Inverse folding.
């Protein structure tokens, strides 16, 4: 377990908004210095401003997590700036709302590059630094999965596949790194009130349905600040996984209790989404 304390360092990808920014704020409030990474400089500046009142040291880094070279450069910059890393939050991710048929191979490569390989690259690049930190204060890895990692959802073939992979990677790391005093948590949010859908909304094969999904998320989604607090608690408790939101809990339970029956409901849900009976 890691006791979060002043002077620790956290490296966070996808820190330009949403859960990533809120985790940064929550950790900064505890005195943790921050290395914030994103592909959007302006968004990073906003996140830095949101954490500025804490008085911690904050460095900003442009990083494309789908590029191993970019992630390795990020890790090197963080080590040069902060000297150590106690917490790695592989938060960056995208979602694409398309049927399997209309998903292009480029869609698959993009999704896996960001949502899966981004986690792999991050863990590989920061592992030596985390091992060093673990000898003194402990270290922890946060990998962002989803409730979509529990089941293959309609119009989410790439997303569900990627998030299931993140769950499996996290479970492996949890077992392998325990003896190094490095904790690993797989995070499975349901609907969170962020703008992640907007980034790829126009790419959907049914923009109107994607817009409905976005409006539902904004109306019913859990605040990202709550998700961030759950993640911080998971670090200190060394939870293998956390489910955030009643929808994530329900999907997980139904899939375990009715592994086949639950999937038989999904064609009806997909048809309803398309306006069919």
């Amino acid at each position: 377990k890691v006791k979060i304390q002043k002077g620790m360092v956290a490296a966070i990808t996808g820190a330009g908004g949403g859960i990533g920014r809120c985790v940064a704020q929550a950790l900064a409030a505890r005195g943790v210095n921050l290395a914030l990474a994103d592909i959007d400089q302006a968004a990073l500046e906003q996140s830095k401003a949101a954490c500025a009142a804490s008085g911690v040291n904050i460095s900003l880094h442009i990083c494309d997590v789908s590029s191993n070279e970019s992630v390795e450069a990020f890790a090197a910059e963080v080590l040069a700036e902060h000297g150590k890393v106690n917490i790695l939050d592989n938060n960056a991710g995208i979602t694409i709302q398309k049927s399997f048929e209309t998903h292009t191979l480029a869609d698959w490569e993009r999704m896996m590059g960001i949502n899966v390989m981004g986690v792999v690259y991050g863990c590989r690049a920061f592992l030596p630094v985390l091992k060093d930190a673990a000898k003194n204060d402990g270290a922890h890895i946060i990998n962002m999965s989803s409730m979509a990692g529990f089941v293959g959802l309609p119009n989410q073939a790439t997303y569900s596949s990627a998030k299931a992979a993140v769950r499996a990677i996290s479970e492996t790391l949890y077992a392998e790194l325990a003896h190094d005093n490095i904790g690993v948590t797989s995070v499975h949010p349901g609907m969170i009130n962020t703008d992640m859908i907007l980034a790829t909304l126009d790419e959907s094969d049914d923009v109107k349905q994607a817009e409905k999904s976005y409006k539902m998320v904004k109306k019913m989604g859990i605040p990202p600040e709550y998700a961030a607090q759950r993640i911080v608690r998971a670090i200190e408790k060394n939870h293998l996984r956390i489910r955030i939101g009643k929808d994530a809990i329900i999907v997980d339970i139904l899939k375990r209790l009715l592994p086949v029956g639950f999937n038989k409901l999904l064609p009806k849900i997909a048809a309803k989404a398309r306006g069919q009976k």
Notes: The chain has a mean pLDDT of 91. The beta strands are 9-12, 33-38, 58-62, 87-90, 139-144, 182-189, 241-244.
